[in-house]
Request: fold
Amino acid sequence: MAFVKGAWRILVAIKDGLVLLFLLLFFGLLYAALSFSPKPVKAVSAGALLLDLDGTIVEQPASLDPVSLLSGSGPQAKEYRLSDLVTALDAAKGDAKVKAVVLNLDGFMGGGQVAIERVGKALDGVRAARKPVFTFATVYNDDSYQLAAHASEAWLDPLGGVAIAGRGGSALYYKGLIDKLGVNTHVYRVGTYKSFVEPFIRSDQSPEAKQASQALDGALWQTWQDDVLKARPRAKVVAYANDPAAAAQASGGNLAKAALSSGLVDKLGDETAFGTRIAQIVGEPDKKRAGGFATIDLASYVKARQPANDGDIGILTIAGDIVDGEAGPGTAAGDTITAQLYKALAEKDLKALVVRVDSPGGSVMASEKIRVAIMQAKRQGLPVIVSMANVAASGGYWVSTPADMIFAQPDTITGSIGVFGILPSFEGTLAKMGVTTDGVRTTPLSGQPDLAGGTTPQFDQIMQLGVEDIYRRFTGLVAQSRRKTPQQIDAIAQGRVWDGGTARQIGLVDRFGGLEDAIAEAARRAKIDPADARTYRIEKTPDRFAQFIQSMAERDQDDGAAPRDMLSRQALIQRRWAMQAIADVRALVSGAGVRADCLECRSYGAPRPAQDAQGLLAMLAALWR
Reply:
């Protein structure tokens, strides 16, 4: 008995200690947050504007959840807003203090072709202003090399290489596993090419989906080559990509020399030699060190040159998965976006609205909610212009239908006009374990959907009819927007994904152009001189606590080290199959309702580590429910 009492006292002491520790941590964080003040903007001294892109380029950086930060499950890569990079590079052209622009691409994780092309165009502008642009990496992949092609000097570590993979790859199919587990996958869809559900009902890609993917990847690969060769005509990039083994063999297996002899890079040297070269142009830092050079901090530079957010042309960003309810930046939550738009329409004297879309779609209900809110802007007499970024497909196209004009780029991913629903039931799985179900019904829908006992034919029929009705509504909205008949839209819909170039030919897109072109068009329609156009971003400004959490995350991220050798870098990039598996299982078990979504489109945009990391937690939560 004495032993039990002693053990109990120890357990109570441990519990009290943990509670005390938690309280100390909580009040410590609360004090730090309340006393936190944003860093003042540093005075810029002469040097090189350093873009140390250790992360991804996105339209709208995701907010960081404090719980994720404390638990260590938050994003491991930074997210750089595309417009911030463009603002900095455009300002650098005429800034006498900026002697050069330097990109360190060792930790760069991509951003989608449209975003990378836009940064490349801004780099071309810097070079046109007679300022040098330098890039360095241990290993260049497709995304980082597309940026490096725009450099005055592209440097490569002698122990590194250039790994150009091109478009394409394999996907996971779960039909065999699902059959072994006895899971019954109920699929309700419209669209020959709506391949989101194929991994759950097939063991391979359908001929229709393969045909569409081949055409899409071929078009994107061609636009990538066009951009690279226009920026660096001397690069033998096509021959190198088509037969990298021959290039490596010709250089005796030295991949760095193979890249140099193929004209892909200009110089071989480690980071110290690279820094020494930059220092010859921009000067050395105050604290001299080997390979150091005078730098201009990107974040401070952007903050000092950010235009005031008080214009009369609203910019509404719809970025990430379209979901029901509320969410922070980087996710297109229906309730959040509509509330922000309605507030801006009520409180600001807006003259036009530009909708920037970078989304593969998601919830039909949320997509429609956002569309209705945008229609309110039209009812108030505002011209509505849509600017498509990397991806504006399925639900991303649904929210674009109110547009007076749609801008996209040739390598924008759009279309995917189709609808589906997916629901698993586990009667077969339970039967394998000797578990069965039984009961009574008063109507054909009693107890439906029954995930343990299976669905009834009447339920399946109703779900399919509902999906078909939503598809008719979707194609009707597109037909009205594009001034075509529903039959004409149905012929180019059916869930098929299109590249921006083809989308323009078939009438889903009006013009080629970026966000700046869309703003200029909105200004003209609002009777504003495009040169005088000022914008207002319709999004929540981070409060002091959010800024504090972000500063903590940045300090934590600075402590990390990305893999730098070729094998590790390529393995990190190709880990998407694991993330795909998590996302696929989450989609299967979460019961997300009827969706206008494009699963394959996600691989064409910027990877979102935050969503990937939280995907497993969401999956487990769904299973728990």
Confidence is low (pLDDT under 50) at residues 609-625. The chain is about 45% helix and 15% strand. The radius of gyration is 26 Å. The first helix runs from residue 2 to 35.
